[in-house]
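Batch job 17 of 40 flagged for manual review because the log was empty.
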Amino acid sequence: MSNSDNVKSIALMFNILAEIFYRNPDEEFKNTLSELDTSIFITNKTNLQDLALLKIDEIKQLASQLPLLALKQDFNALFVRPKGKLAYPWGSVYLNKQNRLFDHTTLAFMDFCKLQDLNFNLEHNEPTDHFSLMLVALVHCLELDSVSGSATSQGEEGTSRTEVLLSQHLLPWSERFLTLVIDNDNSGLYSAAAQLSKLLLAELTAELSITVVEVELYK
């Protein structure tokens, strides 16, 4: 399998995961997940492929079996309710001592996106450092890097866009977020999605030999 095919497959999985963590579940999306064609999800690594396919099958089964109300309750408790969200999906909450939104780390990610000509058309005035939006940015960077090589518009010679995004913006806090999802999910679907996210991000980290920027987490 070519590197291009591998990027396309990984991108498909990240796009699905971005939807899961961002979209308030409805019957249409529930049906979409339950009918996923797992044959399109392939990777260069056989061991990762087997683990990933198991998680995708688990997501499909849970989406098919669980009532919509259970998914909505989980989504609300984890990511939406006004106070006491169980897994805040924004990076600045973990990286700011007061757990504030729109902190300097949010601005840094926004600057990175501008350099990559990546604009999010959001319906509400919300922070862009949402886990799902960072996955969308990751797909964007993976696709650009697969076409143009490792040079970035930041002028970091030999460092790819993907490496910058992962090491500086996503990986410093995403492990904590995904662990909170796994620990607090009741339905099982969001836990399975978080475990699949961990698998794919760990594979990219190893494949690209990424050194994650060391930060202090406050949540």
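Reviewer: the log was empty due to a logging misconfiguration, but the result itself is present. The chain has a mean pLDDT of 90. Unflagging and moving on to job 18.
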